[in-house]
Specification:
136 residues, alpha+beta, five-stranded mixed sheet, 4 helices
Length: 136
């Protein structure tokens, strides 16, 4: 199993390539690389990215705009190897030990394998909302 590490600025090209791979697998809109770099910088400033040789998980610390409630919001989780569960557990542990988050939010897509949704439920996550898209 590959070792995990926290992403640093010098990991930009690796993160970029993994994000582009996610986009090919799950989305039908091209990536804007300048926006992707801004996304990366935001995670260095107010979030976290954990990397393995085959994947990553990322999240931002977000304060609820109308409540005293802070959320570690997952913004990407992708693995082509066998480190996906280790990435998830590390992300959850980070949310717990930083002592500044009231909850962790994970997003699943319509293309997310049902086993992943079942895993999240087994780990204590509950489904709280669904998103719908209307392409214009």
């Amino acid at each position: 199993m590959s070792k995990l590490r926290v992403a640093l600025r010098q990991d930009w090209t690796e993160i970029r390539d993994k994000c582009l791979a996610i986009n090919v697998d799950h989305y039908d809109v091209p990536v804007n690389k300048l926006k992707l770099y801004d996304w990366f910088e935001q995670h260095l400033d107010r979030g976290i990215i954990f990397l393995s040789d085959t994947g990553f998980i990322s999240g931002l610390s977000i304060s609820d705009p109308v409540r005293d409630w802070d959320v570690l919001t997952e913004t990407g989780w992708y693995d082509t190897g066998r480190s996906g569960l280790k990435l998830l557990r590390t992300f959850i542990e980070f949310g717990r030990i930083t002592d500044k988050h009231d909850e962790i939010r994970m997003t699943t897509l319509s293309s997310t394998h049902p086993k992943i949704k079942h895993l999240l439920k087994r780990m204590g996550f509950e489904e709280i909302e669904q998103s719908h898209r209307l392409t214009l």
